[in-house]
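<tokenise_the_fold>
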Amino acid sequence: MTSRFVTRFAVGAKNINVNIAETLPDRGFYRLVDAIPEEVKMDIAMKAENAFKGALMVPDDIKNRTTTLNITSMNHESPADPVQHSTLQCLDGQGKTVATVHVASDPAQQKPMPAFARKD
């Protein structure tokens, strides 16, 4: 998988990078990140930041291990989650996925990370 840097935000003394996946070989696609309007990328990055900093989406132990949020899919619905959302991987300092989470397009519909989303 390759990804492109979008922005970063601070959580205490730590900086969290927000990237958008360009390739996901296991899913067989290539995203043209340059074709996505900057305001769309920043909107999703801001929602990811707000959800990550909030108390609901990610437990503290996952937050503490996360150094990068990698956006793997943009706004969509799925059979497992009918709420409009983007999918993000929480990556540690070695690039290992520690959790996969959904960020609701409407913050009022944000749900906690389910236990099965943990990758450790």
